[in-house]
Amino acid sequence: MNMQRRDLIAALAAAGLPLGALAQGKLVLGFSQIGAESEWRTANTESIKSAAKDAGIELKFADAQQKQENQIKAIRAFIAQKVDVIAFSPVVESGFGPVLREAKAAKIPVILTDRAVNEKDTSLWVSFMGSDFVEEGRKAGRWLLENHKGQGDVVIVELQGTVGSAPAIDRKKGFEEVLKAQPRFKVIRSQTGDFTRAKGKEVMEAFLKAEGKKIQVLYAHNDDMAIGAIQAIEEAGMKPGKDITIISIDAVKGAFEAMIAGKLNVSVECSPLLGPQLMAAVKDLKAGKTLPKRIVTEEGIFPMEVAAKEFPKRKY
Ligand code: GYE
């Protein structure tokens, strides 16, 4: 063992950090993913897996299949295996306190990726990297206020993401905050479509059954639900993107295709490409650096008019 390496290990030990696989030369990252509910999530998983490979980090990847209990189990298993760093994307905001305290007691640093938790004790994680979901909701709201033509009441329906998840809570909040300024914009129905195409379609069918042609605008918390809803609107004999203005979030390739076809009006960008950033953070952490507590992803907004030009540049 050369001096440098010995010094590094001694420094980690002094800091009370477990050595894990470092002693054998490879950093080990335990990552608990939510599942595969959307195009966004699939791109996020791919980004994490390929970035770990490129960075030479050993990735222990666990798919929770949308269940919080599976995430908690996976995190406990990572603690038992003494991984160097734990990262995860919490399916919902609440209920992770106990397992986060277990990781802290085991002195394994935790990085939150993509979604936040609502724990008061912020020492339970070293960094949270991901988008500003409230701002995404505001961008969706601002686009509507700036682009809606005509006077009088504007009837809106909303497809929410997974109940209790940070993006569902925050995207609703940001949108409402902006719309408050103009009370003629009214959300008359709001229900969860769990971020999936199938649920988005099902709930839109119910909205159409109840409200029919009254609906002027659909705000979907992600593209997949919007794409499911587009099908429901077409099956009901209406024209998505024309009879009903559709606003969604993520800006995945499927949304660009729908925009090019004239069926989706706008998608607010939310980048899933968090892998490289996460691996850099894992390395920084193990080199003894302090990470910024919050790393915000930069993102834009794409109306259908620019979709064809932007499409070839899209990476997810
Ligand atoms: O918008 C949605 C996915 O947490 C930002 O989760 C993510 C959201 C994303 O299922 O498509």
Describe this structure in words.
This protein is α/β, with parallel strands linked by helices. The protein has helices at residues 3-14, 39-55, 68-80, 97-105, 133-147, 166-179, 197-211, 223-235, 253-260, 275-286, 307-310, and strands at 28-33, 58-63, 85-88, 110-113, 127-130, 154-160, 185-192, 217-220, 245-250, 266-269, 294-296, 301-303. The strands form two sheets. Strands 2-1-3-4-5-11 form a six-stranded parallel sheet, sandwiched between helices. A six-stranded mixed sheet has the order 7-6-8-9-10-12, sandwiched between helices. The longest helix is centred in the N-terminal third of the chain and has 17 residues, at 39-55. The two termini are 43 Å apart. Residues 37-38, 40-41, 114-115, 167, 195, 222, 224, 249-250, 270 line the site of beta-D-fucofuranose.
Bound molecules: beta-D-fucofuranose
- Counted by DSSP, the helix tally is 11
In helices, the fraction of residues equals: 40-55%
H and E order: HEHEHEHEEHEHEHEHEHEHEEH
- Please state the structural category: alpha/beta
Q: Label the overall shape.
A: elongated
For the largest sheet, list the strands in their spatial order. 2-1-3-4-5-11
Rounded mean pLDDT is: 94
Described by strand count, sense and barrel closure, the largest sheet is: 6 strands, parallel
* Rg estimate, integer Å: 21 Å
Percentage of β-strand residues? 15-25%
DSSP, total strands: 12
The unreliable regions are none
End-to-end CA span: 43 Å
